[in-house]
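STRUCTURE:
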């Protein structure tokens, strides 16, 4: 007869604590979510010739440069069913020429925030709400044709708090509060910017975008800005008007830009014209004209050519640029 092995009392006593321990560990297991992190950036090379080097972001003569190239990390993690934490760490890369080999990096947007049904709350170094209120009117952003060439208020400031509300019936309210220690031109005084937007900044879900923004004691500036964009078929028209005055000074004036872009296959011919009389970015009243064309290889890459001219009261400067840009 075949003998059947039955568990003894000793075996049961040994197995039971092991099973209990395994069950206890399983019951108390905590699931940890790995943050979602994305590496991104912009690589650009540009060949430019500038007559005098008077305008910002240029040097006299012919230059081979990588204007506003950068890389960064952005990520987010769900904290609970109501709150998600997110961050951005971004640096400017300037290593093309010999002068920048010792300091090839500089800080750009670097912040941490939380978001939920209440909107977004961001702390750190960030574009002010006055700067972001430009929408897409600036067709030559981050070039010598940038509206910051003559228009004040295009600032990225540290020690700032930013709030962005959820959209309600197409409206979005946002605010910047800058602590005095980083409000460089205010002698330690805090600054603020408040912006109300309506429509779609990307002009995808809606063909229009409008913003009204007020800044007070923001890096030495008090300003009111009104912006409007509208897409008519293949044409996109933008207009911006701004009244600027020194927070603690006598200079003041009105400025603005008009821009027009046409989508023709992969080609994007575009023109932009601006004027400012505040003398806060340039030493005199200034006119600024730019015309050029982009060729889009895909959604991430383009080649471009443009000519931009700055006219001051007693002098002028012209720059011509040819470039290749890749966003990743």
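SEQUENCE:
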């Amino acid at each position: 007869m075949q003998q059947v092995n039955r568990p003894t009392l000793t075996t049961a006593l040994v197995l039971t604590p092991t099973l209990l321990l395994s069950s206890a560990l399983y019951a108390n297991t905590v699931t940890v979510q790995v943050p979602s992190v994305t590496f991104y950036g912009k690589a650009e090379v540009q060949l430019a010739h500038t007559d005098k080097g008077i305008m910002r972001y240029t040097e006299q003569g012919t230059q081979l440069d990588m204007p506003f190239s950068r890389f960064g990390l952005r990520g987010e993690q769900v904290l609970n069913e109501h709150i998600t934490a997110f961050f951005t760490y971004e640096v400017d890369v300037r290593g093309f020429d010999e002068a920048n080999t010792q300091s090839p990096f500089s800080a750009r947007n670097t912040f941490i925030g939380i978001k939920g049904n209440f909107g977004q709350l961001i702390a750190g170094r960030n574009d002010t709400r006055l700067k972001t209120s430009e929408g897409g009117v600036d067709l030559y952003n981050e070039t010598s044709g940038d509206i910051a060439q003559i228009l004040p208020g295009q600032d990225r400031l540290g020690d700032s708090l930013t709030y962005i509300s959820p959209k309600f019936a197409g409206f979005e309210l946002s605010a910047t509060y800058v602590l005095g220690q980083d409000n460089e031109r205010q002698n330690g005084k805090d600054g603020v910017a408040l912006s109300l937007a309506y429509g779609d900044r990307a002009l995808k879900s809606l063909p229009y975008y409008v913003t009204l923004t007020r800044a007070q004691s923001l890096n030495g500036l008090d300003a009111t800005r009104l912006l409007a964009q509208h897409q008519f078929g293949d044409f996109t028209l933008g207009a911006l008007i701004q009244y600027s005055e020194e927070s603690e000074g006598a200079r003041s004036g009105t400025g603005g830009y008009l821009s027009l872009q046409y989508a023709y296959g992969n080609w994007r011919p575009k023109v932009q014209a601006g004027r400012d009389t505040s003398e806060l970015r340039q030493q005199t009243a200034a006119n600024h004209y730019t015309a050029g064309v982009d060729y889009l290889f895909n959604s991430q890459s383009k080649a471009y050519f443009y000519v931009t001219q700055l006219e001051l009261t007693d002098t002028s400067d012209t720059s011509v640029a040819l470039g290749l840009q890749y966003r990743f």
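REMARK: Residues 6-26 have pLDDT under 50 and may be disordered.
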